[in-house]
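Late entry, written up from scratch paper. The run itself happened at the end of the previous shift, but nothing got recorded in the book at the time, so transcribing now.
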Amino acid sequence: MKRRGYLFELIITRENLALAFQRAARGKRHGFAVIHFASHLDHHLALLGEQLRDGSFAFGRFRQFMIRDPKERVITAPHFDERVAHHAIMNICEPVFDRWLIDDTYACRKGRGREAAVCRAFGFGRTAKWCLNLDVRKYFDSICHDQLLGMLRRVFKDHLLLEMFDRIVRSFRGTNGRGLPIGSLMSQHFANFYLGWLDRFIKQELRIQGYVRYMDDLMFWSNDREQLLDVYKKSSDFLTKRLSLEFKAPAISQLTWGVDFLGSRLFPTHVELNRRSKRRWSLRVGLLSKSHRLGLLSDNALQSRLTALVAFAKSAGTKSWKFRSAMLQKLKVNEP
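Output as recorded:
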């Protein structure tokens, strides 16, 4: 794939910045920062364009908070004007990243996502006997800034864009030049791109057909357990030597026992929610039902939130449909 250039000027056009504002503001129209930005929209867009052009825009202004989903994570959310800048960049650069990635990578890509990854994984599992599950240890915290920027230079050649990438990556002051913040649009795409080099090694050098990656969760399928052990060894060597990362302990399972992947449990004949997802799903529906009974949640708000939860359970197949229906009936909640 040829390196792409002449993208920077497209990023800072008035039309692209306006589109970036619309996307950054989605679902946050009533927030103070969005209202303030929108109150003098033309001025703020022009100022943002000028600052991006002359390199004076300050990347790295973050707000941090903790979530537990289910384990504790520190989320680092950029200020709103920086979120607009990130969307402006990705409006133009996302197609370049997307064309560079292999087909069986599913995070941060339009028309893909979790449900498509689970569906593809189920397809591989119907004909294979064994499955290898790999997870990168402390992935976002361990990404090397210098190596990431070197990889970006192999795909993009626009020097103004590369300078901006450099400022974004180095704005997160991690440990020893490592780490990207969880919660940033650019971090998600950079992290997905970083492991794209491992994808290519797996597909082009190891020539593995049964393979799916969703961010730092990797799954392999084969009828030969020894082949999967060999894949783990060679992939681990590549990850350590070329990307300065390491895997957690590998998990090799027979598919008849069922394997967990992205909140689902995959069997050769069906897919269902895994135990942790069922527990979290029940808890969330119960909390929504209680909030509604106490008058803290309107009918419309309840239905809107339930729709997302029900869609998640529906993607996991017939057995999860039975679980979903039983739980909704027990909690006296109507299915949207």
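The CA atoms of residues 288 and 302 lie 7 Å apart.
(Scratch paper discarded after transcription.)
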